[in-house]
What we know:
By secondary structure, the protein is an alpha/beta fold. The chain folds into two domains: 2-30 and 102-210, Ribosomal protein L4/L1 (Ribosomal Protein L4, Chain: A, 3-Layer(aba) Sandwich), CATH 3.40.1370.10; 46-96, no CATH class. It has helices at 30-42, 103-119, 136-145, 161-167, 183-188, 196-210; strands at 2-7, 13-19, 123-126, 152-156, 173-177, 191-195. The radius of gyration is 27 Å and the shape is elongated. The model has no long low-confidence stretch (mean pLDDT 90).
Amino acid sequence: MISLPVYNKEGKEIEALKVDTSAFGGRVRFALLKQAIVMYHANKRVGTAATKNRSMIEGSTRKLYAQKHTGNARAGTIRTAKRVGGGVTFAKIPRDFSRRMPKKQRHLARDSAILSKILSNNVVVIDELKFERPKTKDFAAILDNLKIDRSCLVVINEHDDMLWRSARNIPKIAVLSAAESNAGDICRHAKLLFTKEALVALMNREKESEN
């Protein structure tokens, strides 16, 4: 059991939240975490790079001149990769780099990522994050009050358009709902900022899935 302080928007500690590590798998599964991060980066690759091979180059397939007795270097067709304008020897073709993991493995990897952040004291819990209208200045002030000056992933219980619009112009800050959170985004950011509601909901969800 780990006790995490809960802060308000002014950065003052108002209570403590007990976090049962068993709700996040009890231990950090490093091999599974690496697999999830590799999948995260692979799925971001576009894979549209393409170059022309010999078959895509226009021109005759006839050998340009005799192999010997011309005084020239040996040459094949005009499409050969040895000539300017010829095809590329090992041409790039569009390909799909995406990878997949079973749902249970993705959730376990996410839990390991969260637990590793908790154990390294890189998780901050705030009582609530509500905005009546988008205000980047107000959100930046909250981050200053919480002493968050590095890249941070903000995890909330449900999508909040006002919060998202308040945070989108701040560099290295991302906002995700608890259901959208994943190991790749968690590990990509130095800090995790949870609303109390999101962290409690995430712990209860994990306990329910175990049962």
